[in-house]
Amino acid sequence: MDGVTVIDHPLVQHKLTIMRKKETSTAGFRRLLREISTLLCYEVTRDLELTMETIETPLQEMQSPVLEGKKLVFASILRAGNGLLEGMLELVPSARVSHIGVYRDHETLQAVEYFFKAPDDIAERLIIVVDPMLATGNSAIAAIDKLKERGAHNIRFLCLLAAPEGIESFRKHHPDVPVYTASIDSHLNENGYIVPGLGDAGDRMYGTK
Ligand code: URA
Question: Locate the Phosphoribosyltransferase domain: which residues (predicted)?
Answer without folding.
Answer: 6-208
